[in-house]
């Protein structure tokens, strides 16, 4: 979880990540290298819901199903800062409802993407992720996306649904279907404030695919669909069969194809 990465010593973080990786299902036998991904998130994906320092250190914290799947499929690392982004140079950065990012991190990310980097952004204007943690607890998921400075720089605005409905909705993208709540929209800004950025809106303005300089950004106006509470019981133990997991896989594959085509 994002707050814990800031308080645990780096050696302990490395040990815990290795423990998680070994606990995950064995990755598919393939000669292909796994995509290297850096993840920033406020969602309880890495350690699971309501994890405490004690449960993490004791090994009792259980990662969210989607994160267990990502550990199996990708070379993924959770980070709290992008200050070493250019040096680490992952294949893809995923921002999944991240906490308020330092302006320096936003500048670093923008520059990295414009130089050819790839980013997938899940930013929710009205996150409805249940939490037993009290209001004000830094471990609670961020209720509303705080990436307006970056999105605005790219000529986009994230807006909440006018009805502010809390009802579950079923979404479909090609062969991928999943349930979510509080879906937002991405709207082009009227002012021309996005040099060298071209965005193509799709699926009812739920997703934007943008060319940013030499790089690519996929921006999704929701993050609740990662919550396994909305998944059918039959796929909780096999998230590779979930529409949510396969939707993210499809975005990752799009970016990997783009990376390969540029080589």
Give the mean pLDDT.
83
Shape: globular
Strand order of the largest sheet: 2-1-3-4-11-10-9
Give a short account of the largest sheet.
7 strands, mixed
Low-pLDDT stretches are: 1-29
Helix content: 25-40%
| SSE sequence, one letter per element | HHEHHEHEHEHEEEEEEEH
Distance between the termini: 34 Å
Determine the strand fraction and express it as a percent band. Answer: 15-25%
- The number of strands is 11
- The secondary structure category is alpha/beta
C-alpha Rg (nearest Å): 18 Å
Count of helical regions: 8
Q: In words, what does this structure look like?
A:
With 263 residues, this protein is α/β, with parallel strands linked by helices. 29% of the residues lie in helices and 22% in strands. The chain has eight helices and eleven strands. The strands form three sheets. It has a seven-stranded mixed beta sheet with strand order 2-1-3-4-11-10-9, with helices on both faces. A two-stranded antiparallel sheet has the order 5-8. Strands 6-7 form a two-stranded antiparallel sheet. The chain starts with a helix and ends with a helix. The N terminus is likely disordered.
């Amino acid at each position: 979880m994002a707050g814990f990465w800031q308080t645990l010593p780096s050696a302990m973080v490395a040990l815990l990540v290795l423990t998680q990786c070994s606990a995950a299902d064995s990755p598919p036998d393939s000669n292909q290298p796994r995509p290297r991904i850096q993840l920033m998130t406020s969602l309880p994906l890495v350690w699971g819901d309501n994890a405490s320092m004690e449960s993490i250190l004791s090994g009792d914290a259980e990662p969210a199903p989607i994160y267990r799947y990502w550990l199996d499929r990708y070379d993924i690392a959770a980070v709290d800062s992008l200050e070493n982004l250019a040096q680490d140079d992952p294949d893809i950065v995923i921002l999944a409802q991240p906490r308020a990012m330092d302006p320096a991190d936003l500048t670093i990310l923008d520059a990295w993407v414009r130089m050819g980097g790839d980013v997938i952004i899940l930013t929710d204007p009205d996150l409805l992720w249940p939490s037993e943690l009290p209001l004000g607890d830094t471990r609670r998921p961020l209720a509303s996306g705080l990436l307006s400075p970056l999105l605005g720089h790219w000529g986009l605005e994230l807006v909440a649904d006018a009805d502010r409905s809390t009802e579950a909705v079923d979404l479909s993208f090609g062969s991928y279907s999943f349930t979510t709540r509080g879906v937002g929209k991405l709207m082009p800004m009227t002012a021309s404030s996005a040099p060298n950025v071209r965005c193509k809106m799709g699926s009812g303005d739920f997703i934007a695919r943008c060319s940013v300089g030499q790089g690519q950004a996929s921006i999704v106006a929701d993050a609740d669909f990662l919550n396994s509470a909305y998944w059918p019981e039959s796929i909780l133990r096999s998230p590779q069969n979930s529409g949510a997991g396969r939707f993210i896989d499809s975005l990752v594959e799009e970016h990997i194809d783009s990376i390969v085509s540029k080589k």
